[in-house]
Amino acid sequence: MPAKTLRYYENAGLLDPPERTASGYRDYDDDVLDRLAFIRSAQAVGLSLGEIRGVVALRDEGEPPCGHVLELLRHRATEIDRTIRQLRALKLELSRLVERASKLDPADCDPNRVCHLIGPS
């Protein structure tokens, strides 16, 4: 993982600042690998860094975060369902526009309008 990413995660509160070597390099513990894997997996399912920070904070406070994670996952699934519905509606509208546009002559475009393919018929 790039050092820039590690520093970003430190600044974002996802990783504790590591010990430094005598020459000033960051020296991460092995348990950081587990946390990094969790962060990547959580991002892959659409959790925000803020949400991940909340989960990590619970763990750092000694609280088991899995119940909270389950709620975040349920919320994310609901958001995805809503997005899918919106995208299906958009796809239907685009199909209607394409169907309508295929029956119109582009040369008939009104010079007082931007484009007659999109807008009121």
How would you sum up the global shape?
elongated
Name of the level-1 CATH class of the largest domain: Mainly Alpha
**Poorly predicted tracts of residues:** none
Q: In angstroms, what separates the terminal alpha carbons?
A: 54 Å
**Mean pLDDT score, rounded?**
92
State the oligomer.
Answer: single chain
Major sheet characteristics = 2 strands, antiparallel
What is the CATH architecture term of the largest domain? Orthogonal Bundle
Q: Fraction of residues in helices?
A: 55-70%
- Count of alpha/pi helices: 4
Q: Round the Cα radius of gyration to an integer and report it.
A: 25 Å
Placed side by side, the strands forming the largest sheet appear as 1-2
Pairing-aware structural class of the strands and helices? mainly alpha
Could you characterize the architecture of this molecule?
The chain is mostly helical. It folds into two domains: 1-64, Multidrug-efflux Transporter Regulator, Chain: A, Domain 2 (Orthogonal Bundle), CATH 1.10.1660; 67-121. Helix content is 60%, strand content 3%. The chain has four helices and two strands. Strand 1 and strand 2 (26-27) form a beta hairpin. The termini are far apart.
